């Protein structure tokens, strides 16, 4: 009798203490749950074993990456439905120990154990990074950056499109093109930095060279771009040469902590500070402050999270740490501003563009899905599934205000107090 889905639904509701919000299809072909919507497909019993051995987000991630757990239909709808169960519990979540004090929970776990069959733990997918202490040494940061960015430039071309910009775009309207929105973002940053011919710009975490090329081509500045990714640097240098900008743009494989050829007139740090780590952030801010000339501007474009009531209870997202950004850490915007000010900067403007990142991520997901077979060939099925889940879940997180993204404009204001800023803010708009 095909009844695995019905049994699974009942056990999950017993475990959760609430109705299962999506339809379930089990390995025996049975289905149960609300009809008419997307379906969460439990392809085999191994998916249950993954969840039993790693309850919560990491177990679900392992099942997804390995292909033991899939979705038939709208991925966003499934993620939205299960987000409160898994991704949005935050600091109010019960610990496993607290949950297991409930007799109904213990009974549900025993039922899942019986359904799972073998109790041997499945090996983690090969795409998973073994978690280590977040030391943020130069060596560990180089390894983490390589894991995320050295996936293959061809793969990133699929996801990012011709702009090759891997950070939040800036949208005139939701109906615009990704390429126009990324161009507008680079232009916005250049205006905030007040780039002019003859200036020197340091682009920290330069990616595939898009900001460096834009600044040199459109504003006549000389640019040094630094990245820890060999693949990014090779790609960026090729683009610089094709644009005829080798006399104005230098791309280095270099840690920002090793840059010693300041002062620079301006610094852009776009989607890089998330890799710095909370314990190193003040050091990061001081290093950039020291590299700027008096009056120079820093544009720090960075994802931030909502603050917790008890910050000591905050833990790094397990899925992101194990599969996407090893050692990556998000901080509340207030902490970022505080560290910049402690380093000596005068913070002049903070702009939240949270909704813009949701739009950007949905376009990246659409790009990936449209060329899925090629993306799988260029990487692996598991790696492609990682990126699809990560970007779709992140889009929803931005839409729900679980995380945001901010551009912080700061100045190394001289002792005399002349910041060089206009009397009316945001003239760059």
Automatic annotation (TrEMBL):
The answer on whether this UniProt entry bears the keyword S-adenosyl-L-methionine reads yes
Q: Which UniProt keywords apply?
A: Lipid metabolism, Methyltransferase, S-adenosyl-L-methionine, Transferase
Please name the InterPro entries in this protein's record.
CFA/CMAS, CMAS, MeTfrase_dom, SAM-dependent_MTases_sf
The UniProt entry, under Pfam families, shows:
CMAS
Q: Does the keyword Methyltransferase apply?
A: yes
A GO term, aspect molecular function: methyltransferase activity
Residue span, Polyketide synthase-like methyltransferase domain? 155-396
Superkingdom assignment: Bacteria
Q: Name one GO biological process term.
A: lipid biosynthetic process
Q: Which SUPFAM superfamilies match?
A: S-adenosyl-L-methionine-dependent methyltransferases
Question: Which family is this sequence assigned to?
Answer: Belongs to the CFA/CMAS family.
Tell me the PANTHER family matching this sequence. Answer: CYCLOPROPANE-FATTY-ACYL-PHOSPHOLIPID SYNTHASE
- Identify this protein by name: Cyclopropane-fatty-acyl-phospholipid synthase
Q: Which organism is it from?
A: Streptomyces aurantiacus
């Amino acid at each position: 009798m095909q009844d695995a889905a019905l049994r699974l639904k009942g056990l999950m509701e017993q475990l959760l203490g609430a109705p299962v919000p999506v339809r379930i299809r089990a390995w025996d072909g049975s289905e149960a749950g609300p009809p008419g919507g997307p379906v969460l497909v439990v392809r085999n019993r191994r998916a249950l074993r993954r969840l039993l051995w790693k309850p919560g987000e990491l177990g679900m991630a392992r099942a997804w990456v390995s292909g033991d757990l899939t979705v038939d239909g709208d991925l966003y709808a499934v993620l939205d439905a299960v987000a409160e169960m898994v991704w949005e519990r935050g600091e109010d979540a019960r610990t496993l120990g607290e949950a297991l004090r409930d007799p109904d929970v213990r009974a549900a776990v025993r039922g899942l154990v019986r359904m799972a069959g073998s109790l041997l733990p499945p090996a983690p997918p090969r795409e998973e990074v073994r978690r280590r202490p977040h030391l943020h040494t130069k060596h560990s940061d180089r390894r983490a950056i390589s894991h995320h960015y050295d996936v293959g430039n061809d793969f990133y071309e699929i996801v990012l499109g011709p702009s090759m910009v891997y950070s939040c775009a800036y949208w005139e309207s939701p109906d615009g093109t990704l390429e126009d929105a990324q161009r507008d973002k680079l232009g916005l940053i250049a205006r905030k930095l007040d780039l002019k011919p003859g200036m020197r710009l340091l682009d920290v975490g330069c990616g595939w060279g898009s900001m460096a090329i834009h600044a040199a081509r459109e504003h006549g500045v000389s640019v040094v771009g630094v990245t820890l990714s060999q693949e990014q640097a090779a790609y960026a240098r090729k683009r610089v040469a094709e644009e005829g900008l080798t006399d104005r743009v230098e791309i280095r494989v270099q840690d920002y902590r090793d840059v010693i050829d300041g002062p620079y007139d301006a610094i852009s740090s776009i989607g890089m500070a998330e890799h710095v780590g909370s314990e190193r952030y003040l050091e990061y801010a001081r290093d950039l402050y020291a590299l700027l000339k008096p009056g120079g501007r820093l544009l720090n474009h960075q994802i931030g999270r909502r603050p917790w009531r008890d910050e000591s209870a905050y833990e790094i997202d397990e899925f992101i740490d194990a599969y996407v950004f090893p050692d990556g850490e998000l901080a509340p915007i207030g902490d970022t501003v505080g560290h910049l000010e402690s380093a000596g900067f005068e913070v002049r403007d903070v702009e939240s563009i949270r909704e813009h990142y949701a739009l950007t991520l949905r376009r990246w997901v659409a790009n990936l899905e449209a060329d899925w077979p090629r993306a799988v060939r260029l990487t692996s099925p598991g790696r492609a599934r990682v990126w699809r889940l990560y970007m779709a879940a992140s889009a929803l997180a931005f839409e729900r205000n679980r995380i945001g993204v901010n551009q912080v404009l700061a100045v190394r204001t001289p002792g005399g107090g002349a910041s060089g800023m206009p009397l009316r803010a945001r003239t760059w708009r």
